[in-house]
Amino acid sequence: MRSLGFDAPGELRTDGYSVIVDIYIEKPGEDDPDGNPQPPQRTYYVEDAPADLQPRSGSQRAAQSGTVHESTHVLFLWEPVAEAPVGAMVDVKSEVGGSVSRSFTVVFTARWGTHVEIDLKAVTA
Question: For the CA atoms of 20, 101, 12, 71, what is the dihedral angle to 10 degrees?
Answer without folding.
Answer: 100
